[in-house]
Amino acid sequence: MEHSPKSTKKAKHKKKVDTEPPPEPVREPVQVKVEVVRSDPEKMPPFVGYFPSGFDPVKQSSGSAGAGIQVYRNQFMNKRTELVVSPADSSVEFVGTSYAGEATGQRGMYALGVFDKESQTLKVVSIGANKIFRLEPRVKGLEYKEPLPSGTPVEEMTQDEWTAKRRLTDATFGTKRHIEMNLKFAEIRRDEEPEAKKNLDEKMKNVEVKEIALANTDAHIARHIPPYDTSATTPREAYVLDKIILSLEWNHLQDIYYLLPKGEEADFSGYPTFIRNRIDKVKKIEDESEKKKLCCILSFINYLVKFKDQHTMDGVSSSKNYKIPPILNNRFSTLFEVSETRRLPPEKINLLVSYVLVLTLFTDEFHTDYKDIAKDLRMTIPPVRQLFEHLGCKFLKEKGIFHATLPMPLTFPRINSKRKKRN
Fold first, then answer.
1. Rg (Cα) of the chain, in Å, rounded?
2. CA distance 234 to 418
3. Which of 37, 53, 123, 302 keeps 20 to 30 A from 411, CA to CA?
4. What is the mean pLDDT of residues 325-347?
């Protein structure tokens, strides 16, 4: 029996229809509540590991034992971590590190999202690039070292090369405020370059130097005190607050101000005793601008005290991981000349303490009891009193307690620049 051309055409058409893929199901939109999980300094952030080898941890965990996951931290360099995944009944484990491979070549921030179908909530948590691990297979019991690139000698970058690379990265990916801060510090460094100093020496040859002005300059260097104005007529003008706290820094000093509205829930336990003893005074200020200004001054005192603890032998453990805003940390490191060993020179410790004492005068309206700030600075009363004297302060005794005051005009005790000859 022969098929007609018409019937053959129908069969071909029918076969074509049958082989077409089924239509995709219609997906209804989902109303999702996004919840951003803030980082907690007391908790370890999540780690993300991926397996370029194709190992499937979900399939492996379906067995009886599953895969073991462990995180290791270097006891001497606590920023170095390792993530190890050990499949059950296997001689191979997967290892990823934060100090080698891909984790060291990235500076970006990522986010991890977990969707809860029951509550229709998407929880998002930020993850640093050094918390993303490429898990490479390793045979258990064998030591592995990163192989050197073939044919390419490995050379360590000099300090200048590393600094130049970091500045280029900051200029490319940094915030506007961070870039402005770097430019400001670049101007300071430019003034300290040998060529700039040479040009300055050439210019100074024709400048008449007055002995009185030179003596005042030497006294200022020897005293290690904050910027001041001897022509001031009021205590508030004697030490220049705008040069002690720079204009770009005020926005980074509002932590105490935003804690005040929380009332009893506000936790000031991490702040120095001097600050905690004056919280009630701050709360009573009705003028919001004055209240905010005083809160910023107290916050600046807090960061100075924490910075001193981090860079001296005393109190390192209490403030080791305390986060100081980068704009302040960079300025403090330059102003107080932090050495390569991350220690403050003795004369710069006196300068830092003088900054703190001047700000306590502003806080207490130039009539301050200095027992609590001496405790916060881990100093005894006599050296603190001596530094107040170098700042031009006098002392009044009220109800058995000495208070430091700042009389006008601002005068300093005489500094003996020459040593007495021994008989």
1. 33
2. 33
3. 302
4. 81
